[in-house]
Amino acid sequence: MVPCRSFRALFWLLLAASLLGALPCLAQEPVADLERLPQDVRTYLPPDPDRPLLEGAAREEATDRFLKRHFSPWAPDFPLPDAAKTRKGWQELAGSEGLGENRRPVPASLRRSWLEAACAAPFGEENRCGVVLLPADLRLLPTSRALFEPLTRDGGGGYPFDQLQNSTLKPGEAVRLLHRTPDGAWAFVAAGTANGWVESSRVAPADEAFRSLWLAGPYLAVLDDPTALKDETGRFRCLAPLGTLLPRTPDGAALIPVADEATGLARGIPVHLPEGSAAPFPLEATPRNLAETANRLVGQTYGWGGSFGLRDCSATTRDLFLPFGVWVPRNSGEQAKLPGRDLASLSPVDREAALMREGVPFATLVHMKGHILLYLGPYEGRPLVLHNFWSLRTRDTGRILVGRCAVTTLTPGAERRDLDPEKSLLHRVRRMVFPLEGRDLP
Asked: Boundaries of each NLPC/P60 N-terminal domain copy (predicted)?
C-alpha cells in the first residue's frame, strides 16, 4: 500500500501543477520578423531621403504650435484640472486591487494612506508656475510604490503594468505646481501632456525672470539617449533623455534648471553637451533625420508609462517627433485623434494596401486600441512599422514576450502556430494618422 502521506504529497503536487497551468505563460521565444528584418531603420529610407516633410510656413507653424503646447502651463489661461474629477480618479485608484513589487496584493490600508496624502491639502492651493529639474515619474497617487494590474486569463496584467504610472517629465519642462502632500515630499502638477504627482525635489517654482529666460529661446533638442549633463565645473547634474528641450546659449551650450539654495526658486546654469548628442531645435524633418533619430530608440527595453526611465509605444512616437518641433500627445488614444483616416471598415488586405498607398513613410502613425506604431514604408510588398511593444498574444492564455522597440510587419509571429491570426496587429488596426499635418489639437 502507498502511505497516506504519499497520497497527500501527490495531491498537492497535482494541485500546484494545475494552478500553474492556469496562470498566464510569458515565454521568450523567437519571432521571425525580429530575426529576418534589418533593424537599422535607415534600410527603409525612400528614394528621396533628404526631402523635407515640413517646409517654409508649415514648418514654422508646427514649431509655434509645439512651443505653445510645451510651455502652456505657464500661460495665464492654462486650464487647471477639474478638482472633483481628479479626486474621484484618486479614490477609484485607491480602491482598486492590485499587486505590489512582491507580487502580493497591496494592502487596502496602504492604498488609503496614499489617498489621504493626496486629498489632505486644498486642491490647487499653491497654483504657481514651476519647472522640472530632473527626470521625473508622473504618478497618479503620491507614492513610488507599484500597483500592478491583477493578472488576467489572456496573459495580461502584472508587471510592467503599474496602474499608478502615468507618464514621465523631462528636465526643463514647464509645469503648474498645484498643491503638495502634508510632508511636502510630493507635488501635484499639471504639465502640457498630463497631470500627476512628482517628487518635490524634482521640481521648483519658476518666477517671471526665469520664465522669460526659458521662453526666449533658441533651443537645443537632446538626441543621444540618455545624455549626461555636466556643469562648467565638470559636476554631473542629470541624465537627459532623447526629446529633452533646453535653451541654447550663444556659445552653443545649453541651460538646465536648478533650485537656488537660498530661495528655492529655479535658475538656469550652463552645461556643455557631448558633441553630436544634441541639435538645434527644430531639426529638419526629413526621412533620413527621422530614421537616424529612430535608430537611437531601436532595441530599447519597453517601459510602461515611462517606468524605469524607459518608453512604451506612445512615448516612443512622441519623443521621436519632439526634436522636429512636432507636437504629439502623450498616449496612443490621444495620438489617434490627430488628422488621419479610419481603416477599421477595410479588410486586413485592404488596410495594408491603403497604408502603402496613402501613408507617408516616417510621417504616418498606425493606431489600434491601446497601441501606436510608426509606418516606415513598404518592404518586400508589405508595410513595415517601428514600435515598442511588450508581447504577442498566443491562442491559449500565454504571451510571447518581446519587450523592446523593433521593426516588424503588421503580423509579427505569423509563422507561429500558437499565435491566433485574428489577434494580429493587422486585424486590430483602426486608423492611420498624420502628425505632421497642420492643425491645432483639441
From this structure: 13-118
